Amino acid sequence: MDTSIILTLAREALLLMVLASLPPIAASLVVGFLMSLVQATTQLQESTLSVVPKLCAAVLALVIAGPWIGGQLTRFATQLFLVLPEIAS
């Protein structure tokens, strides 16, 4: 069992996790910032005003980036299943 293969797979899995979670997190961050600006300029300090737009932005980002995320996860799973026999022996 070669530890470099395991370390490479672990590194790629962590990188894939970050890349797959980036679209909804970035969309929520941008919408949250914009809603904070609106709340600061209008002096409305209601916390529920920012939750719904951030949730909608995250869902929209997942709908738009979903095929890409699915393709990346499929690619990684295929690569993992091809490397598993090398790890097991």
What's the short version?
The chain is mostly helical. It is 91% helix and 0% strand.
Would you mind describing this structure in some detail?
With 89 residues, this protein is an all-alpha fold. It has one domain (3-83). Helices cover 91% and strands 0% of the residues. It has 2 helices and no strands. Helix 1 (3-42) packs antiparallel against helix 2 (48-88). The longest helix is centred in the C-terminal third of the chain and has 41 residues, at 48-88. The chain is elongated, with a radius of gyration of 19 Å. 7% of the residues are buried. The model has no long low-confidence stretch (mean pLDDT 91).
Which helices and strands appear, and what pairs or packs with what?
Layout: H1 3-42, H2 48-88
Helix pairs in contact: 1-2
Keywords:
2 helices; 91% helix; 89 residues; mainly alpha
Number of domains: 1
Helix content: over 70%
Overall pLDDT: 91
- Which stretches of 5+ consecutive residues score pLDDT under 50? none
Largest sheet, in brief, is: none
Distance between the termini: 6 Å
Overall shape: elongated
How many whole angstroms does the radius of gyration measure?
19 Å
Structural class: mainly alpha
| Number of helical segments with 4 or more residues | 2
Number of beta strands = 0
